[in-house]
Task: structure prediction
Amino acid sequence: MTATDTAPLDQAESLTSVNPATGETLATYRIDNEDAVRAAVAKARIAAATWGALTFAERKKHLLRWGSKLVEKSDALCELIHAENGKPKDDAYLEMMLALEHIKWAASNAEKVLKPKKVSPGALMSNFAAHLEQRPLGVVGVIGPWNYPVYTPNGSLAYALAAGNAVVFKPSEFSTGIGNFVAAAFAEANPELPDGVFTVINGYGATGAALVKAGVDKLAFTGSTATGKKIMASAADTLTPVLLECGGKDAVIVAADADVKAAADAVAWGATSNSGQTCAGVERVYVDKSIADEFVAEVKRILTDIKPGSDDKASYGPMTMPSQIDIVRRHIEDAIKNGGKAVLGGPESIKGPYIEPVILVDTDESSDAVCEETFGPTVTIRTVNGVDEAVELTNKSKYGLGSAVYSRKQGLEIARRLNVGCTSVNSVLSYAAISGLPFGGTGDSGIGRIHGAPGLLEFSRPHSIAVQRFAIPGMALLSYSRTESTMKMLRKIVPFIHGRAK
Ligand code: NAD
Result:
């Protein structure tokens, strides 16, 4: 594992981790170049043989020990998340807790989901036993973002490990310390395992790009859609399969029969917590006209008292990535230019690394603030004439990650009409906390799923084995010895099996 390097480093080969609230340097890391990345993958491949050969029960023991180690070191981990990412320590604790839930679920359910299964061979192949077995892929490359630096990559790391793969993880350059901490906890909890089961490589995009080309058996990426597209194009050269968890522009539908106060409370939190830097955070709201005034007033009332900061009382922290501040400013200005009304805040809400909540009402649907991911503590609210219009506008987005519906009577029915990967009914983001539910999106939000049974299957390959138990005399179908009478018999059997539907 790559460790923090305290020796002075040449700037070109080092990465400096900085506190986004204060600009203070936290640590310096040596950047892993192409050769170092290839060496990490080669070491992981050797370790994968040992790790992949363990029983599910043995891997479960190692994964749960990792979880316990994270709990033991939770104070230090939450301090580090607060310092390097900026979010409040309590939010850091919740993030860690969610990651622990997923580690436990993946470890405990891997055997049930991935164990060998017998499949019916069908009438024509009834002399065969059909086995479906899932094998580990080998080495999985994981590239992560910074917004939920533990929880988000964990959806790939824990599930890939539980499925019997070794992992090589490149954390975001904005959360390098956190990525190294999590991997060190795995090694510390499992000293008897060979080096290389869980390796970290450090660096910027170039290190990630080298990982894509380093011969991994699958590349699991979480980050922006633009980077996801580059990774998929690069992975095509070697037909390396990819899992892409990308951006979102999630909508909340507030129907006429919604609990307005509950919906407003959830939208206020879902849009601004973590400084709005949540892939499945609330970015757009479509509210029925019969309750729109009451709803907007309630969201405004709640958010008026919500303040960002770095102290213990702050509701959320600074923007983690300085360049995102310009995108948020551009979206707010563009929304106002396109007919939107800022009923709370505006461009003046941007104060250094902090952005206070901004509510934009009835912004043009073609503006960037409605079409592109803002990733800041802002929300657009549009009044609609009923559920049909809300569904149509929700589905118009090129993204399709999460969504939410507030309705007392038709929540599930409305949810089923949305072209997205996940929906919460009468809550926001709750699907992400239910380990058995897969997470991922449609369209520009990505390809594939983390979490749940599909999240384990993503990191394994099916191996189909057909075993002939006995030969049926006169039924040698896959042989040149096939006879005319066999074909005669088949011409009777096939219409009987397949030709009677009216
Ligand atoms: P990003 O795309 O800038 O970077 C993500 C990672 O990719 C980083 O580790 C980065 O170093 C690496 N990278 C950059 N260029 C690369 C290249 N050419 N080849 C390989 N790797 C490269 O994204 P970000 O700013 O870190 O994260 C924010 C984005 O992540 C938002 O769009 C957010 O919606 C998305 N996100 C999605 C999910 C999800 O599950 N769908 C979860 C969290 C965040």
